[in-house]
């Protein structure tokens, strides 16, 4: 993997043998990638919300309903790195079901690095669901760190009771899940570095409400064709959201972009 933006310093040495296995061995090492995607220092009581998506060159965020076919080894490396840098991974219930979500996997050396940086050894998965239509036997709940379920007060009581056995229930609104309340609840639990992996509806709500700080986007070198979901879906916004490109990486024709968005006050 090589850095295109910001450009490398003239004459900077390559790092042979340090890149992720299966990737070009003259590019970035893991500590380089950590630096590229480092979360800024946060003021007390605030959240930093980063999204991570992969899409084809024509904007398809899924193939046959799932995103896995779009990403290669480098995308999976970035995917893991972003999880390792996060306090919590937030996902919508539909995506959790479709992608058969499981718990975050953190190897021993990364656990040590997380603890040294003041993070918990493993980030929990937090699922946003108003209906609570989740299977308590799903692999998501077979985790060393209990998942969080961010829901509404009016969610079906029987489903809440069943899921309370396998997850921590967090009420974030009366008739719907209020995303501002959800973020405040995560911060109150010591989880301010938020990584969201979708789906497109949740992503659109976060961006449209001015709650998204960063978009990390992998552009895969393929065409998905007509009829696919993009990285945002749902209700339209009153205006477009401008972004600033801060990093651009490349590996085997795939582009890895990191954008910053201005939070709405």
UniProtKB/TrEMBL annotation:
Does this UniProt record's set of keywords contain NADP? yes
**A single Gene Ontology molecular function, please?**
5-amino-6-(5-phosphoribosylamino)uracil reductase activity
InterPro entries, per the entry: DHFR-like_dom_sf, RibDG_C, Riboflavin_Biosynth_HTPR
Q: Keyword Oxidoreductase: yes or no?
A: yes
Gene Ontology biological process terms in this record: riboflavin biosynthetic process
UniProt feature, compositional bias: Pro residues: 1-13
Q: Which UniProt keywords apply?
A: NADP, Oxidoreductase
Extract the Gene3D superfamilies matched here.
Dihydrofolate Reductase, subunit A
Region (Disordered), start-end ranges: 1-24
Q: In which pathway does it act?
A: Cofactor biosynthesis; riboflavin biosynthesis
The chain positions of domain Bacterial bifunctional deaminase-reductase C-terminal read 48-226
Mark the transmembrane ranges: none
Q: Which SUPFAM superfamilies match?
A: Dihydrofolate reductase-like
PANTHER family named in the record: 2,5-DIAMINO-6-RIBOSYLAMINO-4(3H)-PYRIMIDINONE 5'-PHOSPHATE REDUCTASE, DIHYDROFOLATE REDUCTASE FAMILY PROTEIN (AFU_ORTHOLOGUE AFUA_8G06820)
Protein name per the record: Bacterial bifunctional deaminase-reductase C-terminal domain-containing protein
């Amino acid at each position: 993997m090589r850095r295109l933006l910001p450009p490398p310093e003239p004459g900077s040495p390559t790092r042979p043998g340090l890149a992720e296995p299966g990737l070009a061995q003259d590019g970035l090492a893991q500590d380089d990638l950590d630096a590229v995607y480092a979360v800024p220092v946060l003021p007390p009581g605030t959240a930093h919300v980063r999204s991570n998506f992969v899409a084809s060159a024509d904007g398809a965020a899924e193939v046959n309903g799932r995103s896995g076919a779009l990403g290669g080894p480098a995308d999976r490396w970035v995917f893991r790195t972003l999880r390792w840098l996060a306090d919590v991974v937030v996902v919508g219930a539909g995506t959790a079901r479709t992608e058969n979500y499981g718990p975050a996997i953190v190897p021993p050396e990364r656990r040590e690095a997380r603890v040294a940086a003041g993070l918990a050894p493993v980030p929990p998965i937090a699922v946003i669901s108003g209906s609570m239509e989740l299977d308590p036997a799903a692999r998501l709940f077979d985790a060393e760190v209990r998942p969080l379920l961010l829901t509404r007060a009016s969610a079906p009581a029987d489903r809440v009771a069943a899921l309370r056995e396998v997850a921590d229930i967090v009420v974030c609104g009366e008739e719907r899940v209020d995303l501002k309340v959800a973020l405040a609840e995560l911060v109150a639990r010591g989880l301010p570095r938020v990584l969201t992996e979708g789906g497109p509806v949740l992503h659109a709500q976060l961006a449209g409400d001015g709650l998204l700080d960063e978009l990390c986007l992998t552009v895969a070198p393929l065409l998905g064709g007509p009829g696919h979901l993009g990285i945002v879906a749902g209700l339209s916004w009153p205006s477009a959201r401008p972004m600033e490109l801060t990093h651009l990486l490349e590996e085997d024709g795939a582009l890895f972009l990191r954008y910053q968005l201005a939070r709405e006050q």
